[in-house]
Structure formats: C-alpha cells, structure tokens
C-alpha cells in the first residue's frame, strides 16, 4: 500500500498533538521545508518542559521550531520598547527587526560592536519570558570608515 503525502502529514500531526501537553495550546502545525513549525499560545510551558519537544524530535526524526501564535505576541512597538529597556547600552544594538509572519525578532550589531561580548543568554531568556517572539542575534555590515 502506497502512503500519500496527506497520510504522512496526518500521522505527523497526530504524533505531535498526542505528545504535546494540552496546556501548550497548539494553534497550527506548518511544514517548512525540512522543519516543522509548531505554533502555540503557551511558549513558556515548552521552555520549562523542553524535554517534550526533544521527545517529539526523536519520534519523528524531524527538526522542530516552536513559534508563538500571533494572538499572544506583543505589538512591535511595545516589544521593541521592552527589548531596548532589557538590553544594556554596552551591547551596542544598532537595529531591531521583526518578521511578523514567523514571530521572530532579530537584534543587529555592527561589526565593531560584534567584537565585544554579545548579550548574555540570561538576557535573551528574560526577553523570551515576557515577549513570546523568537530571538536572534546578527552582525551587521562594517560601519563606513572616514
């Protein structure tokens, strides 16, 4: 018997829903190339119980990214204000960009600032607890020389 894409997709979704805590409140599951994106309303629960995602990865042998459902994300201006208060000025963040379709926020630093130690993981974890965007750090281009 030949399995179709729909059969495999349904089985994957079933496995995820079966192993994910109900309190995570899954809103959708998207297939994004080699990854599965699981959108949830309770991101903090999965941060606290990270073994759940590890278990699903081991069952499915797929890469999984957990994303916050759009309904629980802070408005971009409010999130940016919170980020700017949280990140120390010595981190020299030059820009903050949002990708609303993925719920990601990227903090940028220029090449000179990137030579200094970056923001600590503790700072990123604190941000994640208060604003459910996924965070990334990026280096920007070198500043223009005089």
Question: Outline of this structure?
Answer:
With 146 residues, this protein is an alpha/beta fold. The protein is 36% helix and 26% strand. It has a 3-stranded mixed β-sheet, with helices on one face. A 3-stranded mixed β-sheet has the order 4-5-6, with helices on one face.
Please describe the topology of this protein.
Blueprint: H1 5-19, E1 26-32, E2 35-40, H2 43-48, H3 50-60, E3 63-68, H4 76-86, E4 93-99, E5 104-109, H5 121-130, E6 134-139
Helix pairs in contact: 1-3
Based on the structure given, which CATH architecture of the largest domain is correct? 2-Layer Sandwich
Question: On the 0-100 scale, what is the average pLDDT?
Answer: 80
Helix and strand run = HEEHHEHEEHE
**Total number of helices:** 5
Shape: elongated
- Terminus-to-terminus distance: 69 Å
Uncertain regions spanning at least 5 consecutive residues:
136-146
CATH level-3 fold name of the largest domain: GMP Synthetase, Chain A, domain 3
% residues in beta strands: 25-35%
